[in-house]
Amino acid sequence: MANTQTDFIGLKLRNPLIAASSGLTNSIEDIVEFEKSGVGAIVLKSLFEEEIRIEMEKDLSRMTKENFIYPETMDFYDSYDDVEDLLSGYLRLISEAKKAVSIPIIASINCVTAEKWPYYATTLQEAGADALELNIFSLPSDFSHTPEKDERLYFDIVEAIMKQVSIPVVLKISYYSSNLASLIYRLSKTEISGITLFNRFYSPDIDIHSFEVQPSHVYSSPDDLPISLRWIAIMAGRVECDLAASTGVHDGEAFIKQILAGADAVQVASAFYKHGKDYALNLLTDLEAYMDKHNFNSISDFKAKMSYARADNPAAFERTQFMKHFAGK
Ligand SMILES: Cc1cc2nc3c(=O)[nH]c(=O)nc-3n(C[C@H](O)[C@H](O)[C@H](O)COP(=O)(O)O)c2cc1C
Q: How many domains does the structure of the chain reveal?
């Protein structure tokens, strides 16, 4: 029988399948169900600083209307103490999840201001999180920024957090970078333990009749797999931290491909929305059947076998033109 145990960011996982951060990882009931379905770890839904700020702004505007606001109130809201209340639900989720399940619980935060990250990070660590995923997203859409300025944000956040936090830290990033391979490589040389490639963000679409901007597909499809697969393959074995794959894993084959490309762990969200949390069992059954078929006794027997660093034809991962495909048409 194949042994699917693996190490990810210093945590021992019973297998490399992780329930990705989403609305499905936001309650104890869901977390317990995920553990039963077999996943190796869970990333909690992100705590968004923006949401906390909106809540604060609602309170502030109510207090202003009620002539309730004093300079001291602003100080109060600027102080870290106040945020404590707004965080409490999330902290409770971490500590209850730690009591309810035995698989690792990875907390997740998204901050909009660099100076708030260390505070949230240390608070989530104190609540008992086994690790922390930093859900960083900055769209490089500001003409006045240089690429260096956009990239600086990542390094500033990492530096500030690593001074305060001792649990493993994973950075979840997007592929919007002018020099992605170099950025991932340089981030891997910081003190972080892992990088998740890639997050999936709200993307705009246009309603041609109402002339409104609306969200495009919220969930990924299997067609979204190749972007993360390519970058996992290109970076595996050439970075100084672990890599988790995220986006487009909808079946056992895609799960196995990401491990062959070099992923140390594979995160799944959309497929669980589509098929239910117990779909993890199908993915894991396919993984075990594949390992048995190829006589792989452990994950390390085939992890990164098809990575850029080890594949027979690594250039295939860097090819960008469909030359053969177009040639006969
Ligand atoms: C409804 C929904 C909510 C999500 N919420 C979060 C979140 O709070 N934090 C985060 O880092 N990623 C979030 N994600 C992104 C997922 O964790 C994952 O990276 C992305 O969906 C790509 O994986 P998939 O193709 O398996 O869906 C969310 C995704 C979905 C579909």
A: 1
**CATH number of the domain residue 262 falls in:** 3.20.20.70
Is 45 part of any domain? yes
Q: Which of 4-18, 129-143, 259-273 has the lowest mean pLDDT?
A: 129-143
Q: Give domain status of residue 214, yes or no.
A: yes
Q: Of ligand 1's atoms, which has the minimum distance to the CA of residue 45?
A: 8
Note down the domain range covering 242. 6-327
pLDDT in tens, 233-290: 999 999 999 999 999 999 999 999 999 999 999 999 999 999 999 999 999 999 999 9
pLDDT tens for 182-191 read 999 999 999 9
1 occurs within a structural domain: no
pTM score, two decimals? Answer: 0.89
Closest ligand 1 atom to residue 248 Cα is 25
- Among 18, 21, 195, name the best residue to mutate to test ligand 1's pocket (greatest count of ligand atoms within 8 A of Cβ): 21
Residues with CB under 6 A from ligand 1: 20-23, 45-46, 108, 135, 172, 199-200, 218-220, 224, 246-249, 267-271
- Whether 81 maps to a domain, the answer reads yes
For residue 319, give both structure tokens. Answer: 């090819």
How remote is the CA of residue 7 from the centroid of ligand 1, in Å? 23
Q: How far apart are CA 169 and CA 27, in angstroms?
A: 22
